[in-house]
Hydroxypyruvate isomerase
Amino acid sequence: MKPAANLSLLWQELPYLDRFKAAARAGFTAVEVLFPYDEPLTETKAACAANGLDLILINAPPLARADQPRGFAAVPDQVDTFRRDIIRAFRYAEALNARFVHVMAGNAEGDAAFETFCRNLIWAAKSAPEGLTLTIEPLNPSAMPGYFLNDYALAKHVLDEVSMKNVGLQYDSYHAQMIHGNAVEIFETYRGDIVHAQIGDSPDRSTPGSGDIDFAGLFTAMTAAGYDGWISGEYNPGPKTEDSLNWMKML
């Protein structure tokens, strides 16, 4: 298992470009940036190269403004918007050599949303650059009210319906705990579909070990299951990120 740092949340006490150096100094070799679209692409790429970091994940779609919905993939009347924005995300992913693009479903419900989500994922999977994996991630209703993909069983249903090799499940311990009450059990249940993992504690996406989740049990379950992918710290670290990194020693 390999630790990664989500630079959209970690080192928020530093300017954006300085976070890459801080991550490298802390021992990370890979980072995530959820929405890199507002920063010059060349600067993000240069910061990764200068610090020996792989940028492994970005989100789609780009956020054009602060109040924009988090995604359109499951919204029936936004198919054109989804396709336009996912193509832009692909351009960024290729330029940054990202391995994963998290496709955000958006706010919707019902059979039409399910069908739209599946259809859009199939279209995106067929259009994606070679070597890129699309991920879907259930988000809990407390953090994202109205979000379509709000349950791991629903995510499994979507993946089975889509049945594309380059579409997989993004596991997040914080959301899993908030939705289902047992992050470890959720990992064990859906391990076969998980291609990427993020961690944060519940109930407020805090530093691992500060809340309700049994991280020793989670990491043991990951090891037992043979998970050898990235484990990305995506949490609110408090005033000094370096003080929140003890979880790395548990991997």
Notes: The radius of gyration is 17 Å. The longest strand covers residues 54-60. Residues 169 and 192 are 9 Å apart (CA to CA).
